[in-house]
Specification:
The strands form three sheets. Strands 5, 6, 7, 8 and 9 form a five-stranded antiparallel sheet that branches. The chain contains eight helices and eleven strands. It has two domains: 117 residues, GTP Cyclohydrolase I, domain 2 (2-Layer Sandwich), CATH 3.30.1130; 153 residues, 7,8-Dihydro-6-hydroxymethylpterin-pyrophosphokinase HPPK (Alpha-Beta Plaits, 2-Layer Sandwich). It is elongated. The model has no long low-confidence stretch (mean pLDDT 92). It is 32% helix and 29% strand.
Length: 274
């Protein structure tokens, strides 16, 4: 990916843990690396096809002068978030904030914090087999659209499927949802749980009936397993009702562990279930 760099933008701000820093202020140096595709701008020679680094610089200046942060870590986090939300062509941003002559009563040149943040691609499985199933799915999708840090939402065709695991229940409506997000996996899981709660989800029987079920299937190529969340979803390659909608959204996607295309995994699973 191409990158536009802004180095050592000098800004006067009032950030620091000490009261005097918030009152007197000092100089800060902000450097940015804006990851984007510059090909269109390179071919058209039109600023509208690129990221206007002047606008980015003034956004940084305004934010650093208007707000007061105790930690430059917090300042960097908010700068990254605002840049990614305002400039849609920026896919990833590196933010470095330097604080010259930090008041620690020791000789030093500068202290700095560097962070990298960006839009990640995530896929969810969504299902319902109680009440107005389609209405529950549609309401959940609308809730996702309200989340500021989620964009470019795509939804597969809704399919009706037989129950999985616990079979003494009604048929499900299932779909897959893909989007870009600034949320971490844990934060995304919390959003899913909150949407389920709004959909009157109750957890009484494992794999039992539910008004609404949202599962994180994938988060870019992340592979993780802890008490709260496992990515990729451990049942992803075993369920037709998950793979079929997922393949509609990312037919040539590759499983980060098996290193096989989802479309190939789906065909193999169909053969096994004949």
């Amino acid at each position: 990916m191409d990158v536009i760099k802004i180095r050592d933008l000098e800004i006067y701000g009032h950030h620091g843990v000490m009261k005097e820093e918030n009152v007197l202020g000092q100089k800060f140096l902000v450097s940015l690396a804006l990851y984007t595709d510059t090909r269109a701008a390179g071919e058209s020679d039109n600023l509208a096809d690129s990221v206007n680094y002047a606008e980015v610089s003034y956004l940084v200046k305004e934010q650093m002068e208007k707000e007061t942060y105790r930690l430059i870590e917090a300042a960097a986090e908010q700068l990254a978030r605002k840049i990614l939300l305002k400039f849609s062509l920026v896919k990833k941003v590196e933010v470095e904030i330097k604080k010259p002559w930090a008041p620690i009563l020791l000789p030093l040149d500068t202290v700095s914090v560097s962070i990298t943040r960006g839009w990640e691609t995530a896929y969810l499985s969504i299902g319902s087999n109680m009440g107005d199933r389609k209405a529950y799915l549609e309401a959940a999708i609308e809730e996702l659209k309200k989340v500021e840090t989620i964009r470019e939402i795509k939804v597969s065709e809704i399919i009706e499927t037989e129950p999985y695991g616990y079979t003494a229940q009604d048929k499900f409506l299932n779909a897959a949802i893909g989007f870009e997000t600034l949320l971490t996996p844990d934060a995304l899981l919390s959003v899913c749980h909150e949407i389920e709660k709004k959909g009157n989800r109750e957890r009484k029987i494992h794999w039992g009936p539910r008004t609404l079920d949202l599962d994180i299937l994938l988060y870019d190529d992340l592979v993780t397993e802890d008490e709260e969340i496992t990515i990729p979803h451990p049942e992803l390659t075993k369920r037709l009702f998950v793979l079929e909608p997922l393949c509609e959204l990312t037919p040539r996607g590759i499983h980060p562990l098996e290193r096989r295309r989802y479309s190939d995994i789906l065909e193999d699973l169909k053969e096994k279930e004949k």
